Amino acid sequence: MITPSKRHTRLMATAGTLGGVLALTALAGTGNAATSGNNAGNSPKPQAQASRAGAQDASDARIGITPGEGAHNVGITGPVKVTVSNGKLTKVTMTAVATGTEIPGTLSADGTSWNPNGRLAKATQYQVAAEAQDAQGRPATGNATITTVSPANDFIGHLSPMDGSTVGVGMPVTVTFDKAISDKAAVESKIRVSSSSGQQVVGHWLNGNRLDFRPETYWKPGSTVTVQLTSHGVRKTVTFKIGRSQISTVDARTKQMTVVRDGKTIKTIPISSGSPEHPTYNGRMVISQKFGQIHMNGASVGLTKKDGKPAYDISDVPHAMRLTDSGTFIHGNYWGADSVFGKANTSHGCVGLKDAKGGGDGGQPAAWFFDNSMTGDVVIVKNSDDKTRLAPDNGLSDWNVPWTQWVSGNATG
């Protein structure tokens, strides 16, 4: 069962002009962000989520969710559909993220498709979760989070992390809009972020739809971060706490990961990172989601064999934590030989830690790391063969932007 842990607050923003001047009119609820087991997102240069070794009992069922993970401006009638090939759907739920309200739907008589009943609400974020089985009873899962179209002059923004949450020192404040913002200064002027540590916090537009805030260095452990959103003289406040500091460094050359908590090394773990053909990104990444178990499919990130089949299809990858939107995870690996960890880089771009099938052995390195990590923790990869630049908006990769460049991306000066 996929259990996403990254939380969002939803806010409605009404544009005062066509240029996108923001007036915050409401803040509503919290919910779970989702990642699709069959769709890893739309970021460039996908990195796959699993080793070259494939699970022998992978399901033949293939779930498709239309319009797909991360879609914005989705129509309120007709376009949402869940389908499956080589199997039958066993369960589909569609939930409004802000309220938790489940949307009723209809499963086709042959069990191969599902549609919501009636119209969806405008300017609303929905989470779709689907389960299926193939002819041999092997399970498959798919998930997607979509946002429906808003009125002509409205914008929907999603603020992360969640009010009242505790996160690691690397968690930026992220505001993602469903439409590109033209008057960035006007929008940014309505949002203020501060820390009880006294650190200077600056906003930076990573693209036309996303505004992130962070200090020059990681947040101070134990501090409280306050986000203030102002509209027509009314202020809404969101706060979250920074937990202990945990920085884990993966050395692709030595194939070891060093876990440092509050300045002290607490564990060194043998790993297997990306192969020479599919090297892991170098750079500073942040854990954005945690999954006790997740389905990973090479086709979702464009990795297929000559016959068109996925390069890998593993339905039950344990202890998986997302590092980038394009599909880089640090996760448990039960299919690799013991000799792999600390000795060879064999994955399609992820970082693998030794684990047991089902993830039930708490003594395995992957289980330990999962249990001792939180969203917002930093994972640094170095000495990988990868020569590309990790885009700062690919996941929560903000810390790869030098401070002077970060400040220059502030729209309010």
Give an overview of the whole structure.
This protein has 413 residues and is mainly beta. The chain has a domain at 246-398: Beta Barrel (L,D-transpeptidase catalytic domain-like), CATH 2.40.440. It has three helices and 26 strands. The strands form six sheets. A six-stranded antiparallel β-sheet has the order 2-1-10-12-15-14. A five-stranded mixed β-sheet has the order 20-19-18-26-21, with no helix packed on it. Strands 3-4-7-6 form a four-stranded antiparallel β-sheet, with no helix packed on it. The longest helix has 7 residues, at 365-371. It is globular and about 60 Å long. The chain starts with 6 loop residues before the first strand and ends in a 5-residue tail after the last helix.
Topology:
Layout: E1 7-15, E2 22-32, E3 62-66, E4 81-85, E5 88-96, E6 105-107, E7 113-116, E8 125-133, E9 139-147, E10 154-160, E11 166-167, E12 173-177, H1 184-188, E13 191-195, E14 201-207, E15 210-215, E16 224-231, E17 234-242, E18 246-251, E19 256-261, E20 264-270, E21 283-286, E22 289-297, E23 313-322, E24 329-333, E25 351-354, H2 365-371, E26 378-382, H3 403-408
Parallel strand pairs: 11-17, 18-26, 24-25
Antiparallel strand pairs: 1-2, 1-10, 3-4, 4-7, 5-8, 6-7, 8-9, 10-12, 12-15, 13-16, 14-15, 16-17, 18-19, 19-20, 21-26, 22-23, 23-24
